[in-house]
User: What shape does this take?
Amino acid sequence: MINFELIRLALPVLLKGVLVTLKITAAAFIIGITGGTILGIAHSSKNNFLEWLVGAYVTIIRGTPMLVQIVFIYYVLSMTGLQLSPFVSAVIAIGMNSSAYVSQIIRSGIRSVPKGQIEAAQTLGISKGDTLRYIILPQALRVVLPALGNESVTLIKDSSLASYIGVVELYKEGQTVISQTYDALSVYFVLAGLYLILTSTVSYLVMLLERRLNRHVRNH
Amino acid sequence: MLEITKLDKCFNNKIVLDSVSMQVKAGRIALILGTSGVGKSTLLRIVAGLETADNGTVSLDGLNFNIKSHERNGLVGMLFQHFNLFEHMTVQENITFALIRAAKLSPQEAQERAQALLARYQLADKAQVYAANLSGGQKQRLALARTLAMQPRVICLDEPTSALDPVLTSFVANSIQELAHTGYMVLVSSHDTALIERLNADLYLMQKGKIIEATSTTAFLKEQENYPRLSSFIKGQEHHELKEL
Assistant: This one.
C-alpha cells in the first residue's frame, strides 16, 4: 500500500524537482510564446514565402515526437561541436516545439479579429504596426487565451521528457527515490499528485486572467 | 473638390466598376444608389484607399490619391455599414487612439477633442463604456464621432441606414446633411430610397458597375418622369421591401 512515511521523507527532494520542472516550463513557455507569436504573425502575413517557411517548420515540429527533438538538440548538436547542457537543450527543444503549436493558436486568433476593424484602422491613418499591436493582438490573445492555457499545462507535463537526457526535474527525482526505496507505487502516487497540483494551479491562473481580459464583453 | 475619373475595377474577371467618374464639391453630398453588388461599396472603398483601382484616378484638390490609406493622414474618413468599432476599447479610446497614434496629438489634446465630440453626439456619459456594449444607434454615433475626430475632408458612408430602424434613419439623414453644411465632401452609398427625400444631394444610379443616371435630388423630385431608370429603381425597391414584409 501507499507508504505515507516514505512520502513525507521524500517530499523535500521531490519539491526540489518541482522547482526544476517549473524552471523548464517557464523558460520553454517564454520561448514558445515569443517564438509562436512571431511565427503566427508571419504565418498570417500576405508574404507567400514566409507563410510557406512557417508552414514547413510547423509540419516538421508537429510531425516528429518531442522526445526525438530533445535528443536531437542535445546529442546531434553536440556532434557538431555545439555543446549545450541537458537543461538548456531541453528548454530549447520544448520551447521550439511549443512555438510551433502556439503559432497556430495565434494564427487562429488573428483570423478571429473582424477584418472591418483593420480596415477602420487603415482609414483612420493608423500604421500597420500599431494596428497589429493595439487592435489585432489584444483581441486575438483574448480569444486564444484558453488554448494558450492548455498549451502551458501541456508544457508542465512535457517537461518530464527532459529527464531522458539527464535533467533532474520532478520525474527524475521520483525515479531516484524509487531506485533507493523500491516503492514505485507510493512515489508515482505522489508524483501524479504534484503534477496535478502544478497543472491545476496554472489552469486556475489562466482562468483568472481570462476573466480580466473579458471585462469588456460583460455588460456594464 | 474630390474628382473621380474613369475608375475601372475587376474582381476575378468580373467587372465591378466600369469607367465611373464623378465630382464632389465641398459642402455637397453624392448619393450613390443601386442594388447590392453594383459596385457602390467598391467605389467608396477605392476613394477611402482600401482598394486600388485597375484604371482611373481619384484626386482631392488636385492631389492624386494613388497611395495607401494609412499614408493619407486621414484625409478621407469612412463610416462602415457595420461600424467596425474597436470593441475592446472604451468609447473614448475609440476616438483618442487614432488621434494619438496617427494624428500625433498629445493625450491631453486627444482627450479634449474626444470629449467635445462625445458631447455633441450624446455619448458623454458612455465615455468609459466598452464599445462592444453600445446599442446600434450609439455605435453609429460613435463611428461618426471617431471619423470626424481625424478632421477629414472627405467622408464616405457605406449603407449608413441599412442597420437602423426608421427613426434612426431620419436622425442619420440629418447628420449627413449637417456634415455637408459643415463643408465636408460626402459620399453616401445606399439602396435606401428614403434618403432621396431626406437629403439635398447629387444623385447617381449605378447598375453593373456603371453610372446609368445622374441628377440631383431636387431636380429628380421635381420631374421624376424625366428619370425613368431612377423611378423604376425606386419602384423596384418598394416592391422588394413589400415582398420582404
